[in-house]
Amino acid sequence: MKMFERSVVIGYGSIGQRHVNYLSQISTQIIVIDPKPISNSKLAEIGKSFEYVGYLPSLDRLNFKLTAKDVVVVANWGPDHFKTVIGLCALGVKNIVLEKPCADSLHDIEELHYIAAKNQIKIAVNQGSFYDNLGKKINDISRELDIGEIKAIWINGGARCLSTSGSHWVSLASEIFGDNPISISGDGFNDYINPRSKNLSFIEGVFSFTYSQRRRLGICLTNKSSITGSFEIYWANSLGVLDQGKLVIHSNENFTPELITKHKTASKLIFSESIINPENRFVNLYRSFENFSESQFLANLRVHLNSNKSILLALISSETGHKVFFNQPVEDEFLKKKFRIS
To answer: Is residue 259 part of a domain?
Structure first.
């Protein structure tokens, strides 16, 4: 028996197409909504995996009520996510898979949580490796290897965008450190080179997220390079590199805590394994609708919204030229400002 009766995918870009492919395994019917027409041949190809396939140019053309047996994937542009969720509420939606970022303004972030609670909507956010518990796995490995707690995460690269890739990194760092950042500093620049649309932001720069006990996440990106870059994890005496779900850790054999400034290269390999399979990213995401209660969904949504908020605060810091604090109010002009991230 399929998990869902009907699936509605809003936005048929690259990520929307991946959702459609996965939904063919767990849903009976599919309706694709996208302003860009889909050819009859493509619809016929999609229809091979479903009992029914339909196409609509906009959500307001959907002429049936949604039930708890249906799921809707919101995979259109980030600035349109909030109004899309509002439109789905009018149709009775109960299950939503929301692509990141959840929203592009602080106001919409808070409204999303209120709407989900008020309408008893389960919202699963496709935020990196959240449903694979990658942060927990990395912390468990730290304990098993007896190398202490993670002290810092440094990420660098070319044109990857603070929102497009950075939101995954902030989410993972917050899971590893077990909390939201305390303070955030940003020095960014927006080039309108987003491949989805020239109207969408694509942000480079240097961004710092400081957590409790002075643990840090640092992100350095430049839109003037196409190099992927690296994701490095620092322990007191070990260095890890995370790449496509594989974690490789080297250690400094002669580490002396009292001589922390006597730095050496971490040369001894102590761990090298794939700890998640990125190709299976949708499995646990969709299983959450079977495994989690409504209260768990709300709690998880708050975690996702906090990661989203952290990204927006980094952009506010960049605009104001000042450090911002996660738990302090921001100026009114920034509450409803839409940053066009996607």
So the answer is: yes
